[in-house]
Description:
Strands 1-2-3-4-5 form a five-stranded mixed sheet, with helices on both faces. It is of the alpha+beta class. The chain has helices at 11-29, 31-34, 43-51, 102-116, 133-138; strands at 5-8, 55-62, 65-76, 84-93, 121-123. The chain has one domain (5-138): Aminopeptidase (3-Layer(aba) Sandwich), CATH 3.40.630. It is globular, with a radius of gyration of 15 Å.
Amino acid sequence: MTKPVFTVERFQDVYDELLPLLHQHYDEISLHKLQGYDLKPNVALYRAMQDMDQLMMMIGRLDGQIVAYFVAFVRPSIHYTDCMEAAGDIFYCSPDRRGAMIGLQLFEAAEQELKRRGVKCFMAGEKLAYPAGALFERRGFEPIERKFCKWL
C-alpha cells in the first residue's frame, strides 16, 4: 500500500481543498452541530495566524489527495514566555485510511515540524466520545488535563 506524504502547507493555499474534509469532520464528531451551530471557520483569523507564523498545518496526501491533517497554533506560552508551545486545534484522518498507522505518521510529521520551530510543549486533545488516547500514548504524550464543557 502506498504511504502518504506529509508536508506543511499554508492555510491560504490549502483551505479551499480542505473545506470539504472539514465538513466531513464536522459531520462526524462536532458537538456544536448537536447544538445547532453550523461550521463557519474564522478564515480571517486563520489567515492572520498564518501570516504571523503562528499556524502550522501538516497535510498528509496520498496520490495528491488530502487524507489527513493536523492543525496547531504555535506561539510562546502566555504563562512561560521562554517556552514555545503548540496547541493542537484539530486533526483528522480519512476513515478509509484509519487503522493503517496514518495517525501515528501524521503526528510524527507534525512533531518533527514543531521541533524544527523550537516548540517545547506540544498539547493536543481528543473528544471523549471519539477517543484517541492510544494514538497519543504511542507518540509519548501523557494525560495532564481533562476539559469540560457546559452549554449555556
